[in-house]
Write a structure and sequence with these properties.
This protein is α/β, with parallel strands linked by helices and about 325 residues long. The chain has two domains: about 220 residues, Rossmann fold; about 100 residues, 3-Layer(aba) Sandwich (Rossmann fold), CATH 3.40.50.1100. It is built from eleven helices and ten strands. The protein has a six-stranded mixed sheet, with helices on both faces. A four-stranded parallel sheet has the order 5-4-3-6, sandwiched between helices. Helix 4 links the parallel strand 4 and strand 5. The mean pLDDT is about 95.
């Protein structure tokens, strides 16, 4: 079935250390009287890893094939995507232009910001309403200098980024088949929606019957579902998946009850979730994205909305813990 959709012909860089581990959360399983596992995509391998590494394997293969010399991308001051883009660019000897959006609640020191500087990226800090102009300015500048710029959407939110998680669900399915476990739910933090879109599309391609549930870290449910639907359609078109005779919409589930004060902000519940995960399972999770999603997962279990065999996808983001804001909170 996979060759039918031209997936095998898409170039990628084999940079991430795959497959990532699948770890049983024994104490939490006992506590909640379920079977809970964590898919450790925080351990993709380089500079704190995370879900962006899977996406960038495909995106950078495209950039290199187009003979790019400069990578331009955008994110917040503490963007995990920008950190991993800088790492990939360093590895493959490309220049990096990061456009980082000002946010009074995010640190301009430590964490991902420090790692971006360490990797040699050129950092451009702008207001949110200046992003588009800065992108155009940098593209024009590098074109004039003969640096052949290549732009990557924030979060790797494009069809190639989605493909990274089409293959991730195949990897997870193979791991679960080996231990003869049928999952009821896959839970993950949802931001731009690319990771969830890849998992949903991958489940269709590989005929995997599992409920994939996103817990939003910033956006309202309606916006999340719209963005996930859009990127699924774009990826289907790219892969020549014919849905003309299939009017059934994808089932997209997102909870927006655990956003708290918004993007990049922790909550009381997320702080507690970080502490519980470390003290119960010895696993350190970031204080915002995964912490919110884990807190939401615990709450949904208590409300009997989740049961059976649960797989939690740890998407990474650990450098956020190493900023003064979060160290002061904890």
């Amino acid at each position: 079935m996979i060759s039918k959709y031209k997936l095998n012909n898409i170039s990628k860089i084999n940079f991430a250390l795959l497959p990532t581990p699948l770890e049983k959360l024994t104490r939490l399983s006992n506590k909640y009287k379920i079977k809970m596992f964590m898919k450790r995509d925080d351990l993709t391998g380089h500079c704190f890893g995370g879900n962006k590494e899977r996406k960038l394997e495909y995106i950078f293969a495209d950039a290199i094939s187009k003979k790019a010399k400069t990578i331009i991308t955008v994110g917040t001051l503490q963007s995990n995507h920008c950190r991993m883009t800088s790492v990939f660019a360093s590895k493959y000897n490309l220049k990096t232009e990061l456009i980082l959006i000002k946010n009074e609640q995010m640190s301009q020191t430590g964490g991902n910001y420090f790692l971006n500087k360490l990797s040699g990226a050129n950092i451009n800090i702008v207001n949110s309403d200046e992003v588009k102009d800065k992108i155009n300015e940098l593209i024009s500048l590098h074109q004039k200098e003969g640096n052949n710029p290549y732009f990557i959407e924030g979060g790797g939110h494009n069809k190639l980024g989605t493909i990274g998680y089409i293959f991730a669900i195949k990897e997870l399915k193979d791991q679960l088949d080996k231990i003869k476990l049928t999952p009821n739910f896959i839970i993950l933090p949802t931001g731009t929606g690319t990771t969830q879109a890849g998992l949903i599309l991958g489940a269709k391609i590989f005929n995997y019957d599992v409920n994939i549930i996103g817990i939003s870290v910033s956006r309202k449910k309606k916006r999340c579902i719209e963005e996930i639907s859009k990127i699924i359609k774009k990826t289907e078109k790219y892969l020549n998946i014919d849905n003309k005779n299939n009017n059934k919409k994808y089932s997209i589930t997102v909870y927006d009850d655990y956003i708290g004060k918004g993007y990049g902000c922790s909550s009381y519940e997320s702080i507690q979730a970080t502490n519980i995960m470390l003290k119960k399972e010895g696993i350190l999770i970031d204080p915002v994205y995964n912490a919110k999603a884990v807190a939401g997962m615990f709450d949904l279990i208590l409300k009997k909305k989740l049961c059976g065999n649960i797989i939690y996808l740890n998407t990474g983001g650990l450098p956020l813990l190493f900023t003064k804001e979060y160290q002061n909170i904890y």
